[in-house]
Structure formats: structure tokens, C-alpha cells
Amino acid sequence: MQQQQQVLVRPTGGNPAAGARGCSPAQLAALSDVLQMPITAAQKLLDRYPQLLQHEPTSLHTMVQQLADTLNISYKTAAYMAAKQPLGLLVRPAEKVQQSVQQLAAALHVQASTVVTAAATAPSLLVRPLPGLLKRVAGLCQWFAVSPSAALSMVAAAPELLTDSVAGTQKRATAVGTILLLRAVCVQRLVASCPHVLFMSPRILNNKVRVLMAVLNKDRKAVGQIVYKTPELLLCNLEHLGASYQLLLLAVQRQDSFVFAMAAHNGRLLLLPPSKLLIRGARLLAALQMVPDWQQQWRQLRPPQVEQCLASNHIRFERLEYLISTRQAASISIFDALRLTPVAFVKQHSSWPAWLAAEQQRLRLKQQQGCQQQGQQQLQQPQQHSYQPQPRRQQL
Predict the structure, then answer these.
(1) pLDDT tens sequence across 146-191
(2) For the residues 50-69, what does the mean pLDDT come to?
(3) How far apart, in whole angstroms, are the C-alpha atoms of residue 298 and residue 311?
């Protein structure tokens, strides 16, 4: 017997001030639809803010739409903000919210759109008292040596910065510097570019650093320098990062120290999915095998240049196939083929846009033909049923 899914709706009846206990399943579903959140989240929201039951779902929908129109944001973003701060943003008139945006923007000497962008992920910016909020933003500007607009971006990435104490923030920054072996000024720049690192527990941060040390085969200080330049390495899937590093070794065909120098210059290649990096490496190696001059040029490139080549998008890798098929590979170096701007490349190779359009059309037709053939094969195959009757058990 298939187990029925449990619907987390409390019994109806009682005082509306009791929250979700006083609403019907239809009301709960309507609130979930208006604020675009799961039923369980809407249930918790009503438990915390039972005043919302005093408004009809259509009225709440109108409030969210007015908030979206006033701040010039999408309905989805407005619903998220309203769900985070229902009393300060949903029930509150939209004109008052707009006034808070203008006051904060004027006090920080930034554009109103900058405040709205930060409030989209940190809605409490528009609810907190202005004096205390300005004091906290000024503290962030001083601690991390950033501008007010950069401080708002930090708050948008890590809203915890508005609630964490001054001593707590300084203690977290000290722990990050101790684990990564970075100076205080480097920690400031690291946290300013990636505030999530500040609220990572020391144990988890230390474990991530150890994994990076094992993947890159380097000591803690060297790993700290790479993380300082590319802090997103601490937030990515470390298993994928290890696979990407091994693929880089195969694609570059150099020693481990060369690939590490590439990562030290810019670690963005380690953030790519291994599948994407595999395709780039395969296309590059195929092109190098077909053009001996490119092979020699490739060996002479320095780590930053090789990193820039592999960081090129797939359209620029299409250039290699174009140059080989049109017998123009000898007219350009491998580095320029991958790194020239679109305008500069077209200026040297005027037939490139037409070739690319024809190639993309060919690939679309090939994909359509493949889908048609697959559909015909499925129609021709006889339908097979997986159901088989079970033999009856003999009665004792």
C-alpha cells in the first residue's frame, strides 16, 4: 500500500491570533502562492506573524505587487523581501518603504538602485532604524577599508553582517587570517570580496584548506595565497575542484608547478565544471596535434598566458577549427587565435562570421536529425511491459 503524503496543516478554528492554527488549508495555500514559498514555510511564517491572517490573499497579493512596482523589482523578489520582513515591508505602505530607500541612499551618498539591490537579499536594510544602520555600515567601511556601496554589496552577500557584533566580526576575521596565514590587510580584502568566508566555522574552513593542500600538493601558506586571489575556491565543490585540477594537468601537459602557477595567477579554471574543462582541453589538444607551429608556440607560453587561453569561451575555441579547416592556421599564433577580441579577429579574418553561422546551422540540423531518428526507432520498437504476474503462493 502506497504511503500517503502527510500535509502539514494544523486544524482549523480558534483565534486568528493563534497563527497557522487559526487558518484553513485554503488560506494557507493562498498565502503560500502569494509569497511563493512552500506550505511549511508559510505555516511557520503565520506562527510568527499571525497578523497576516487579518488580510485577504488578494489584498496581500496587491501589497506585494505595489512593493514590486514601487521599488522597480520583480514580483518574485518583492515576495521574497516581504516574506523576510512581512511587518516592515508587506503590511507597511509602499510609499514608506520607498522613503526608507531614499533616506538610506542620501545618507550613504549612493544611488537608490544600489540600496534596492542590496535590500533584495538583505531586506532588513529597509526596516532597521536609520541611525544604527548607518553606524554599522560605517563600521564595515572602516574595518574592511571599503566604500559605502561596497559595504552594501557585502551586506547583500552576507546579511549576517548586520546582526553580528563588532567583537564577533573582528574575532572571525582574526580566525580567517590564522587559518589561511594571511596578514590583516589581506584578510580585509578577502572578506570584502567574499563575505561568506567570514561566517564559515573555523573547523570547516580548516578542513577545506587541508583538502586544497592535498589537491594542489602545496603547503598552507601557498594555498592561502591562492584563496586570497580566488576566495570562491572555499565555496565550490572540492571533489569537482580536484577533478578539474587533474584535467588541467592533462590539457596543459606541463609539470605540476606550471599548473599551480596558473592557479596562483587566477583560480577561475578550478571553478569550472570538469565536463566543460574536459571539452576545452580535448579541442585544444586536437588543434595542437594538427598544427605543429601551434605546438611549439604553446610550449613557449607562460602560465598566465596559458590560463587566459583556457579561460576563453567556446566560441573562441571554434576559431581553432575555423582556422584549420580554412587553412589559415599559419597566419596567426595560438595565443592570438584564442585571445583576440571579436572585432580584431574579424578584421583579420573576414570570413569568420559566415563560417560560424554555417557551422551553427549545420549542428542544429544534425541535432534535429538525431532527434527524429531516435523518435522513429522508438516507434518501430514493440512496446514491452515490465509487469509480470507473480505466482500464487501455495496454501499450507
Answers:
(1) 999 999 999 999 999 998 888 888 899 999 999 999 999 999 999 9
(2) 89
(3) 15
Q: Give the predicted TM-score (pTM) of the model.
A: 0.74
pLDDT of residue 363: 83
Residue 91 cell numbers, joined: 503590511
Cα angle vertex 174, ends 173, 175, to 5°? 90
CA–CA gap between residue 284 and residue 190 (Å, rounded): 33
How many CB atoms within 10 Å of residue 149? 17
Q: How far apart are CA 284 and CA 176, in angstroms?
A: 38
Q: What is the pLDDT of residues 90-113, one digit of tens each?
A: 888 889 999 999 999 999 999 999
- Per-residue pLDDT reduced to its tens digit, 348-365: 999 999 999 998 888 888
∠ CA 186-189-194 to the nearest 5 degrees?
120
pLDDT recorded at residue 296? 94
Angle between helices 314-325 and 274-290 (to 10 degrees): 20
**Which of these, 254, 245, 301, lies nearest to 277 by C-alpha position?**
245
On the question of pLDDT at 394 being above 90, the answer is no
Query: And the C-alpha cell for 39?
Result: 506550505
Closest CA to 317 of 334, 297, 301: 334
Describe the crossing of helices 256-265 and 303-310 by its angle, rounded to 10 degrees. 70
Three-state SS annotation for the chain: CCCCCCCCCCCCCCCHHHHHHHCCHHHHHHHHHHHCCCHHHHHHHHHHCHHHHHCCHHHHHHHHHHHHHHHCCCHHHHHHHHHHCHHHHHCCCHHHHHHHHHHHHHHHCCCHHHHHHHHCCCHHHHCCCHHHHHHHHHHHHHHHCCCHHHHHHHHHHCHHHHCCCHHHHHHHHHHHHHHHCCCHHHHHHHHHHCHHHHHCCHHHHHHHHHHHHHHHCCCHHHHHHHHHHCHHHHCCCHHHHHHHHHHHHHHHCCCHHHHHHHHHHCHHHHHCCHHHHHHHHHHHHHHHHHCHHHHHHHHHCCHHHHHHHHCCCHHHHHHHHHHHHCCCHHHCCHHHHHHCCHHHHHHHCCCHHHHHHHHHHHHHHHHHHHHHHHHHHHHHCCCCCCCCCCCCCCCC
Identity at 14, one-letter amino acid code: G
